[in-house]
Amino acid sequence: MLDCAIIGGGPAGLTAGLYATRGGLKHVTLFEMGLPGGQITQSSEIENYPGFFDHTKTGMDFMNTWQEQCFHFGLKHEMKKVERVAKTGEHFTIKLEGGERVEAKTAIVCTGSTPKRAGFKGEEEFFGRGVSTCATCDGFFYKDKPVSVLGGGDTALEEAIYLSGIVSDVYLIHRRDTFRAAPSTIERAKSKENIHFVLDSVVEEAIGDATGLQKVKVKNLKTNEEHILETTGLFVFVGHNVNNEVLKDEEGNFICDVNDWGQVIVDLSMRTSVEGLFAAGDLRIEAPKQVVCAAGDGATAALQVISLIQE
Predict the structure, then answer these.
(1) Most buried residue, 27, 127, 209, 237, by CB count within 10 Å?
(2) In this structure, are residues 82 and 101 in contact, taking their beta carbons and an 8 Å threshold?
């Protein structure tokens, strides 16, 4: 039986694994289908993590050292998909794809969130063929060409800034005339001569053919006027969906308390309403969606696990 099962391999999950193993727990396994690291591995640069201020490093570079450090203390990594976490008596059953089951004394769920779709016509049709949610992954394909970015938060503006160093022009489309991003990020975006603000507007349609996206139809919400942007790349950053499926039972009911948006309700110690079950990172209520905060969540949850098992 595991001392602790950690589901999710982003900053919260990795930090939880580091603190749990370094804190003396011998049987700790992190379940993550792919390479651990989380969404931050798609970022072009990291400038707000304390002690890390190297603009030549990407999010992937940043997380590589985390993996090495965490696994050094004995954290095991299972590349298996977790379908469900269930409370069975005093312990937990981790149900894996294919019918395999693993028993654990405690569980820390750090499954995070995934980018939302904006819902415009052609989005799914051209996803991966011009429509993208990762500028770091796909920006190079549009070197010296114009692209569009949809969104008004930190991620949208940060990725627009990143793209501005690769492409010829960035058309930043936002449904309002003000942004939710940090003031410093907004000023950086405004300082880029090749970032053009298309405000009070939404994307109506992604237009293309068998070769991929060719144009983007944009509508102004105040005037109802429509116009075409001749861009073959459209990057969408309009929020995230909470990855909470593993916390549902076979009837589709959550095994712990969640809010109206499906975010897990936790206290300051990352405890859920179920004894021995913890949630950390973007999965939880009021998550700031910052790496430093997710890491703090993971450390807090792991320390609580150690205390619980010692008791």
Answers:
(1) 237
(2) no
Q: What is the set of domains in the chain, with CATH numbers? A: 2-115+240-310 (3.50.50.60), 131-236 (3.50.50.60)
Angstrom CA distances, 146 to 38, 39, 184, 211, 235, stand at 29, 25, 24, 17, 12
Residues 247, 258: Cα–Cα separation, whole Å: 10
User: b/e string for 216-240 if b means 16 or more Cβ within 10 A?
Assistant: bbbbeeeeeeeeebebbbbbbbbeb
230: CB partners within 8 A, 6+ apart: 146, 214, 215
CA distances 150 to 180, 210, 277, 283, Å, are 13, 23, 37, 24
85 contacts 74 by C-beta, under 8 angstroms:
no
Under-50 pLDDT residues of the chain = none
Q: Is 134 labeled as catalytic in the residue annotation?
A: yes
Q: Maximum distance among all alpha carbons in the chain?
A: 66
Torsion of CA 175, 179, 180, 186, to 10 degrees: 140
Residue type, 55: H
Task: Return the percentage of the chain with pLDDT > 90, whole number.
Answer: 80
Q: pLDDT value at position 44? A: 63
List of residues 6+ apart from 240 with CB closer than 8 A: 113, 114, 115, 116, 282, 289
- Per annotation, catalytic residue among 54, 137, 249, 257: 137
Catalytic option among 61, 134, 169, 200: 134
Q: What's the chain's length in residues? A: 311
Q: Pull the structure tokens for residue 16.
A: 């939880």
Tens digit of pLDDT for each residue in 158-211? 999 999 999 999 999 999 999 989 999 999 999 999 999 999 999 999 999 999
Angstrom distance (rounded) from CA 114 to CA 230 = 28
SS3 call for 303: helix
Question: Has 257 been annotated as catalytic?
Answer: no
70 catalytic, yes or no? no
